């Protein structure tokens, strides 16, 4: 059978042309995806309730100020990478991720640097230390954190106070028990509890040791002191009285040294005895003792003899 190449060519040409027409018609009637606008912006902040400094409103404000807030903008003009870079400029942002979806939504996911303690040093420094042991600038946002005061340098804050703060904040009891940390000039650490009227001394925080995690050394040290303090409160002060001592020293193991509060001098003024009217004075008159009465009679007799002589 002889193949008719001319007829075959015509048929193939018609098929290709038909496919092209169908695709062209479909593309013509399909809406332009690049012209679709952003209809919704979803901002998610991890750990938003854990003493962070970032809110959804602040993220929106930052993007609006930079002219890159995506809502209402064509999706093709929404630069996800530029949004991420803009948000990472904040000292309180750890990571930022932005992406678009075909239904016109833009998603922004943020993880923030969490402050663990506020530093108010004697030299006037006022800043925060985050969960990565880094210094954070001061913020107008008020956070319910433990305050560390005294002789604190930025290096001491990041290497010593930050690990201590993370240890306290990780325990609900300890976090609610300690109100303030105070560092003495010699490096000793005092705690100001929220209950009672006394100071707790825990000694110097451990120094660096070769081959051992310094953060773990401090965490173990602080955990030991706080465990002993809670037991002392439970079995000691709860019976002796919360204001019995002015200073509690936990520096040494196996003993707790307490300094008693000075006793107040109280002057008691007795009330005057009531005056009573005695109807029978003879019944209440105190008679001299028998021996004393005999001596009095003898003295009178002797004096009488002297006069008669």
Structure description:
Residues 270-309 are annotated as: Disordered. Helix 4 packs across helix 6 (214-240). The chain has 8 helices and 12 strands. It is elongated, with a radius of gyration of 44 Å. The longest helix has 27 residues, at 214-240. The protein is of the alpha/beta class and 309 residues long.
Fold blueprint:
Blueprint lengths: L4 H25 L10 E7 L9 H10 L14 H9 L4 E8 L4 E8 L2 E7 L4 E5 L4 E2 L10 E4 L3 H16 L2 H6 E6 L4 E6 L5 E6 L9 H27 L4 E5 L7 E4 L20 H4 L5 H19 L1
Parallel strand pairs: 1-3, 4-7, 7-8, 10-11
Antiparallel strand pairs: 2-3, 4-5, 5-6, 8-9, 9-10, 11-12
Low-confidence stretches: 264-309
Going by CATH, the homologous superfamily of the largest domain would be Cell division protein FtsQ/DivIB
Mean of residue pLDDT values: 80
- Nearest-angstrom radius of gyration? 44 Å
Q: What helical percentage do the residues reach? A: 25-40%
Q: What is the 3D form?
A: elongated
**Sheet with most strands:** 9 strands, mixed
Kindly provide the name of the CATH class of the largest domain: Alpha Beta
CATH-level-2 architecture of the largest domain: 3-Layer(aba) Sandwich
In DSSP terms, counting alpha (H) and pi (I) runs of 4 or more, how many helices? 8
Q: How do the helices and strands follow one another from N- to C-terminus? A: HEHHEEEEEEHHEEEHEEHH
Report the structural category.
alpha/beta
Number of structurally distinct domains? 2
* Arrangement of strands in the largest sheet: 6-5-4-7-8-9-10-11-12
CATH topology of the largest domain: Rossmann fold
Number of strands: 12
Strand content: 15-25%
Termini separation: 196 Å
